[in-house]
Amino acid sequence: MTRPVPFRQAEIDLEVLAANVAQFRELTGAPLFADVGADAWGHGLDVVVPALVGLGAQALVVARLDEAERVRALAPESLIVTTQHAADDDFRRAAQLGVAPRVHSLAEYERAADGGVTGVVLAEETGEGRPGLAPAELDDARTDAALRGIAAITDSAFPVVGAELFGVSEDDGEPAPDFRPVMRLWAPIAATKRVGADEGVSYGYTYRTRSESTLALVTLGYADGISRAAGNRVEASVGGARHEIAGRVAMDAFMLDLGDVVAPPLGTEVTVLGDARRGEPTAHEHARRLGTHSAEITTRLSARPLRYAAGTDTTAGERQ
Amino acid sequence: MTAPLVEAVIDLGALDKNITHLRRTVAPAELMVVVKADAYGHGRVPVARQAVASGIRSIGALDLDTALELRASGIGDDVTVLSWLYPPGQDFTEAIRARVDLGVSSLAELTEVTDASRRLAGAEGFVPPRLHLKLDTGLHRNGATAADWPALVTAAVAAERDGLVRTFAAWTHIAEASEDEDTRALQRFLDGVAVARELGASIDVRHLAASSAGLRREDVRLDLVRMGGHCWGIPSFDGVTPSEIGLIPVMTLRAQVLAVRELGDEHAEAFVSAGYGDGVPRNVAGTCSVAVRGVQHPITRVERDHLVIAVMPGTELAQGDPAVLFGTGAEGEQTVRQWGDRSGTLGDEITTRIAARVPRRYLEA
Predict the structure, then answer these.
(1) Are B352 and B37 in contact (CB under 8 A)?
(2) A14-166, which class in CATH?
(3) pTM
(4) DSSP secondary-structure letter at B300?
(5) CB–CB contact A39 B355 (8 Å)
(6) What is the CATH number of domain B12-232?
(7) Per-domain boundaries in chain B
(8) pLDDT (tens digit, 9 = 90+) per residue, A255-285?
(9) Does B5 contact A267 at a Cβ distance shorter than 8 Å?
(10) How far apart are CA B282 and CA B275, in angstroms?
């Protein structure tokens, strides 16, 4: 799926994704059980899932069956695990999709087994967070699964990696330096205009120009997932130069004050989330200024920006 | 059939009532229902269809992807569909064929429109597109500045004489920074309309106001008022509840209790199946609550796929209990306007950012 002209764009760099996967393997030596829930942390299942399959992911993890159904269509052969199930789920749809549910209680295990699933992940009780199965319950479930021919593994045998593969993190602190951002969110400059000094910009006039200035309209707004609170707080980059978003982020656009310069051509790329190595603002920087973590920044991007693959697909050979 | 883990229930009956109330309020001005950004998360096609069934004859679409989808979904050309935000290099051929009204802010956009018209002009059934010429009255986003306005209008009038476009409407967005600023913007706009008419533009329709000013101020309504937020029952100005201005919230966000953990000392926390991956902002933790069995339980943490609530003392929750995050208040829950106020934004941002992975369920009017 492509647009003839760029509008709101999320470029997914599959080379960086492959490098992050290689880095993960080098650091952990673990199999790749990849959490691609919430549209692969906002990166887009359609682009990400085939790439991860090509990179040899041993399992793809999502929260719910609706998501599993989308992943199954993209990964017909892969092990898919779901982590969240309705209290009255009979697990027949999971069985039909060939999905292995992660179950959180013996009762849930029994419903899943009765529903015909052929594999389960048993969530272990840790004393905090969402409850899991106590040691005795784990034993019961494992014994029953063996009798029924259901493959059963516990959490400890199923370590899942998630946001880090995409170069973001649910950690509020520093980003993991070993993993690079996979996404570049950008949009073209759709309009420019000259204004005088001390002119208000965008709703509520929370920003005023300091001098005679060139303003640029960028077609990303909070409906795309740029927080409304990002106005006067986070930066975007234009041709390597950083500019703070001027005034409130509106639903469909934000403004940049480029200063007293000649207007750049329409269509000039404005990068909102990218890689610090290219001098671009990152999801981590945005997160810090907005009081959250970088995983929320990418995950809460809406479906509107077009996700498309960039970078050489290094997995094409392996997929034959 | 199992209960959905999370769903946004859209009450089209409430939408119908809101639209009817707003139409009466702004009359004799016309009401345009703005369904941009997937109708602020409510679903553009079902919302637009309901709006038409409720008597609406003007729909604001924002972009051509949305406008063309609405036309393809059966919204016929007796209903105005307006688009106004385009990437540079937009091809207007399909839009003109589909009789989409076109907001135009600059000579560059006008040229792209007239290029497409010229290519189509010989074809059977060609109808010159109706332009909504946009003036910047201070918001400084799109719209021609006062300095550029005469040239834009003059070029549009020339194209109209060539049979390529119609100079149908003039419009602007106002900043809503203050009543005085909006009054100044109104005056600049009326001056701009006078200039345009002197230059030969017909300007049959003038529109400036959106939800907030459109409801509060009679003088800004002119010929048409564009509304999004108020149609979905989200008040767009401070200090009022939806019911105080005659509106009913249209979206109710529902989930269910996944599990309860007893923490001792008669404290417990419960896990609810909606998280930031569903569009629930992390910063509602500590500020907003979830209603279960008619009682509000404060949100303490928001994870990607679930959130955690502190179970109110004296209440007992169980796995599978229905949980209401926000809605009309009928089940003891907060409204999305309250969620916006408490988390430092607009209810509009909250509903608009409810994720695509949350299924929408429609209650027919």
Answers:
(1) yes
(2) alpha beta
(3) 0.96
(4) E
(5) yes
(6) 3.20.20.10
(7) 12-232, 251-363
(8) 999 999 999 999 999 999 999 999 999 999 9
(9) no
(10) 8
